[in-house]
Specification:
Blueprint (H helix, E strand, L loop, with lengths): L11 H15 L1 E6 L6 E5 L4 H14 L14 H6 L2 E3 L2 E2 L18 H5 L9 E10 L9 H4 L2 H15 L8 E3 L5 H10 L8 H6 L10 E2 L4 H5 L6 H14 L12 E8 L3 E9 L10 H8 L14 H7 L7 H4 L2 H8 L1
Parallel strand pairs: 6-7, 6-8
Antiparallel strand pairs: 1-2, 3-4, 5-9, 8-9
């Protein structure tokens, strides 16, 4: 990076992902060659600073419907563009915060589910999954490749093949938008658009409601927050709520599959395809029904509440427990709600 783009005083992550965004703005695609003696026909990607800002605008708008979002304020495109510049093209409102948070998932076998048929309407199938590491292209001196483009691409192709789906079937997706620039290049890497055309998808409104698909209905890392180790399972929870129909205030009509992408530099990318275990299309479930099914008395997909000591004791192992390990953690967590 020092040799290709230089180093500034901006935060390191913002520089790396911002440089990937710059490259996406500059990059050219060679379409075809007339003859050996003629110039190549060249098509520029054509992304602009406004395209990256639009990604952030959409994610901030989505966050209004997620009770777990760290930020729920909506911004205009102009406000995002005029926010303090962190590292071009990234302004402050295009950068995720480092957040507190926790998430959990319960994974069961098919035998477990068969023995409990009353849970099948809630069960979500991991239909395809791939964990990939950096490809040799990491060393090609490309800012985009440095951010794991090829490992995300490989993970997506592999997971979708295992699940037996095509990118065109995806209606809802949670991807690792630590910066708006990474959402742009990840849309491309996941095959959700033609190569080099992610910005056109953004401009057409095809990453939000009434478009081709909804990307980051949770608000994404940019607005929901980025609790690092909990980020991936938080994405899983969001997509589970969609497929169950519990996220009834932000559900994407016609959802049969959900796509998840998570990333860690240096390097790993994981892509997961989820489906309902019963094979049905997600339909909205009323919050009254969800409240009854969960036993919580409310719908956790659209309302965030604290919890009681009795609820904790009900879910915690009755066989293995340590007061010394627990200490005052429960009181500290409750104090945050």
């Amino acid at each position: 990076m020092l040799e290709t783009r230089g180093v500034t005083n901006a935060p390191g992550a913002a520089q790396m992902f911002g440089n990937a965004g710059r490259e996406y703005m500059e990059k050219c695609v060679m379409l075809y060659e007339f003859t050996r003696d003629h110039c190549l026909q060249i098509d520029r990607f054509g992304a602009t600073a406004e395209d990256f800002a639009e990604i952030a605008r959409i994610n901030h708008e989505h966050s209004k419907r997620n009770p777990y979002s760290q930020f729920t304020e909506e911004y205009t495109l102009d406000q995002i563009l005029k926010a303090p510049m962190i590292h071009e093209p990234l302004t402050k409102l295009q950068c995720c915060p480092t957040s507190d948070g926790g998430a959990a998932a319960v994974i069961v076998s098919e035998d477990f589910l068969d023995a409990r048929p009353h849970l099948k309407s809630q069960a979500i199938l991991i239909a395809g999954q791939c964990l990939a590491t950096d490809a040799p292209s990491l060393f090609d001196r490309s800012s985009i490749d440095l951010m794991g483009f090829d490992m995300s691409k490989h993970a997506a192709v592999t997971a979708m093949a295992e699940a037996g789906i095509k990118p065109s079937e995806v209606k809802v997706c949670e991807l690792h938008d630590c910066f708006s620039a990474n959402e742009m290049i990840t849309i491309d890497a996941l095959g959700l658009c033609d190569h080099g055309k992610a910005h056109e998808m953004v401009r057409a409104g095809d990453i939000t409601y009434a478009g081709r698909m909804v990307i980051n209905p949770s608000g994404g890392l940019i607005s929901k927050g980025h609790p690092l180790g909990a980020t991936g399972i938080a994405q899983c929870a969001e997509l589970t709520w969609h497929l169950r129909g519990w996220a009834n205030n932000r559900l994407v009509k016609g959802t049969t599959v959900a796509l998840q992408h998570n990333l860690g530099l240096g390097g790993a990318a994981v892509v997961t395809v989820y489906k309902r275990a019963d094979g049905r299309t997600a339909e909205p479930v009323s919050s009254d029904v969800v409240a009854k099914e969960t036993g919580l008395g409310y719908n956790p997909a659209i309302e965030a509440k604290g919890f009681t000591a009795a609820q904790v004791d009900k879910t915690r192992s009755q066989k293995y427990s340590s007061a010394w390990a627990l200490q005052d953690v429960q009181e500290k967590v409750q104090a945050r709600f």
